[in-house]
Design goal:
Layout lengths: L12 E6 L6 H8 L14 E10 L2 E10 L10 H6 L2 E7 L3 H5 L1 H9 L8 E7 L9 H11 L2 E4 L8 H9 L12 H21 L4 E7 L10
Parallel strand pairs: 1-3, 1-4, 4-5, 5-6
Antiparallel strand pairs: 2-3, 2-7
Helix pairs in contact: 6-7
Length: 223
């Protein structure tokens, strides 16, 4: 029987990243929490997480971000975390057409779950610093089909990472800003990005940069 170590904190918000291997999920997460980009590829454990505090409108929120291995054979492990995630990022590599084509498999995985509250889903095309195999309009059309939010970004150059993250969480009911108009949201997003950058320069003590990996134990199998 598989066992996992319990979370050490009770989060206000859980976010999950899904997508094929080597699409840059871990690199995007590292950029979100102000870790540097790592040129060396490191295989992600089945599920691991990073967590941090953010402040929006003078309220503090604890956020946990789940990073997942990009292999469908482990999808049964994702179920408990999918069910509790309020926001899911589906990531593909714009320089790898196959990773885009396989997004449908991850969509099917999400749709197969039963949720007490349906998660907000964002389609993300990463690695726009590389030569494209997937055009922006392809991502836009897929997102429109499923009514997902859509962004492109580069974890390597850090382009659009913070904007994507804060724009996405602004759509969640927990932050109570859905009634604000788009211009007010844009002002708030820019303010959050500026505060994030300044806080990282001055004091990063409130951000936990280490990865706490879930330990899966099985006497008969080793992964």
């Amino acid at each position: 029987m598989f066992e996992q170590e319990p979370l050490k904190i009770s989060p206000d918000l859980e976010i999950m990243f899904l997508g094929d291997a080597c699409t840059g999920k871990t690199s995007i997460i590292n950029r979100i929490i102000n870790n540097p980009f790592n040129e060396i590829y490191e295989k992600t454990p089945i599920i691991c997480f990073q967590y941090q505090n953010i402040k929006i409108k003078n309220e503090n929120f604890k956020i946990i971000i789940y990073d997942t291995i990009g292999q469908e054979k482990f999808k049964s492990f994702f179920s408990p975390y999918l069910k509790t995630s309020s926001l899911i990022f589906l990531v593909y590599d714009v320089s790898n057409k196959d990773s885009f084509n396989k997004i449908s498999n991850w969509i099917n995985l999400i749709c197969s779950e039963k949720y007490s509250k349906k998660p907000f889903i964002v389609l993300c095309g990463n690695k726009i610093d590389l030569k494209r195999e997937v055009q922006k309009r392809d991502g836009e059309e897929l997102a429109k089909k499923y009514r997902y939010l859509f962004f492109e970004c580069s974890a390597k150059t850090n382009e659009n990472i913070k904007y994507m993250f804060y724009s996405s969480i602004m759509n969640l009911p927990i932050f109570k800003i859905n009634n604000e108009n788009e211009s007010e949201k844009e002002i708030l997003i820019k303010k959050l990005i500026e505060e994030d950058i300044n806080e990282n320069k001055n004091d990063s003590s409130n951000i936990i940069n280490s990865i706490d990996s879930f330990n899966y134990k099985n006497k008969n199998k080793t992964y």
